[in-house]
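Figure 2 data, in text form.
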Amino acid sequence: MSNYLNAFDLLDWYVTAGVNESTGDYPIDRFIKRKAPLSEPIANTDFAPTKPLKDPIAGHTQQMPFQSREAAVRTAEQAAEAITSLGELRTAFEAFDGCSLKETALNFVFADGNPTARVMLIGEAPGAEEDRKGLPFIGPAGRLLDRMLKAIGLDRTNVYITNILPWRPPGNRSPTDTEISACMPFVERHIALVNPEVLLLVGGTSAKSLLKRPEGIMRLRGKWMKYKTELGDLNIPTRALLHPAYLLRQPAQKRETWQDLLEVRQWLDAPVQTSG
């Protein structure tokens, strides 16, 4: 038997070690500024990017003007207030320069699924694969999320999926409060436009930010709560779920998440939904 690992053993070792991203399929001379994008545009869909992927080597030719946190939030609030459709929201959000993550991300990741669905899911931020392809929850965590939804009879034709942030934080770090605050007016407008019957907040960042609660995800999951706006025009039944990326690291927690999903399915199947 050979002393060397075969390709499948090596890939399995990488996954076990936590490697989830490669630098590319071929070497890059980073001292030469590339004129052509590294990737071809992906196929156009309702929510996929409509322009070629950015070249991560060349990057942006100009830096965004600096905005204070307060100025960025005011700009976002003013822009979001005038939005009346998802198309307008996407255009305004993508043009927004008040979040510095726009400078480092490859793509603006807006949403996926059915905008008329009863169920809306909101995660934290795009990962590496989402950033490359411009769609939310399509990496390893996204594939687990698809299996979780399928287990209760749901898929991307009858749910709507987005994130708190449409741009990937470098290295998949946690978003800062400043980044979340700058994007929140667009997220809140997104929820208002979709107006789902049920809101599923995937992960602690999403749950704490939208419910405006200080507790961690372990205290927020397992119970029904309400997403409410300051004006009181929305009052949506809401559940917080453990993030699939966490479940990949801690598979023992899948039992609690399965119970949460069963309660969501029971709510959807109930003949009469009441508000309050």
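Caption note: The longest helix spans residues 177-194.
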